[in-house]
């Protein structure tokens, strides 16, 4: 009887809070481009478990509850890597702390100034890109409105499509639902 009680009231059982903390840590590591093994080590330290136990719990139980979050974290990692890739080509500014002479300080300040102007230029490029994309979006929205008006969509959202078009749209919707059902 003691053995049964010990197994049913384990002091090291995983709680929902433990699972959530493990998921938060793993998802953060995915977003930052780190490995899951590093995440398991960090989680082990925080949760008082072994990295192997954290890995087993993540892969065996927790992971399937966070599939959408994992996809989103991977996308964030990809977006972050693309942005980071531009700056990784440049030599990061690290002041020469060994040379405290006036010449060394001037060199460090000039290097800092160059980096500042590079970042300023990159910011300007990105701002121009944002403005360009915004204008493109507005142009596409305008063209979309014109096409909708030309093809018979009323301003209030009512459709003036022919019966054949409505039937075709219904068939396409059923086909989409069938494909989604097959994928599940």
TrEMBL record:
All copies of domain Myb-like, residue ranges: 6-62
Superkingdom of source: Bacteria
Cited InterPro entries: Homeodomain-like_sf, RsfA-like, SANT/Myb
Protein name: RsfA family transcriptional regulator
NCBIfam families attached to this UniProt entry: DNA_bind_RsfA (TIGR02894)
UniProt cross-references to Gene3D superfamilies, sorted A to Z: Homeodomain-like
Keywords: Coiled coil
Entry annotated with the keyword Coiled coil: yes
Coiled coil region boundaries: 109-150
Source organism (scientific name): Effusibacillus consociatus
Classification via PROSITE patterns: MYB_LIKE
């Amino acid at each position: 009887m003691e053995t049964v009680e010990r197994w049913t009231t384990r002091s090291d059982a995983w709680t929902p809070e433990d699972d959530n903390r493990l998921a938060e840590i793993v998802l953060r590591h995915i977003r930052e481009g780190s490995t899951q093994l590093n995440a398991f080590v960090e989680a082990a330290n925080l949760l008082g478990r072994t990295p192997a136990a954290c890995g087993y719990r993540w892969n065996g139980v927790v992971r399937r509850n966070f599939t959408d979050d994992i996809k989103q974290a991977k996308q964030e990692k990809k977006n972050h890597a693309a942005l980071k890739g531009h700056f990784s080509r440049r030599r990061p500014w690290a002041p020469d702390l060994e040379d405290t002479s006036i010449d060394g300080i001037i060199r460090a300040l000039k290097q800092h100034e160059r980096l500042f102007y590079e970042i300023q230029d990159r910011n300007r490029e990105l701002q121009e890109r944002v403005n360009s994309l915004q204008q493109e979006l507005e142009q596409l929205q305008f063209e979309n409105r014109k096409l909708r008006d030309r093809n018979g969509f009323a301003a209030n959202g009512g459709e003036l499509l022919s019966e054949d078009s409505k039937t075709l749209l219904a068939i396409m919707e059923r086909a989409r639902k069938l494909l989604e059902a097959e994928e599940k």
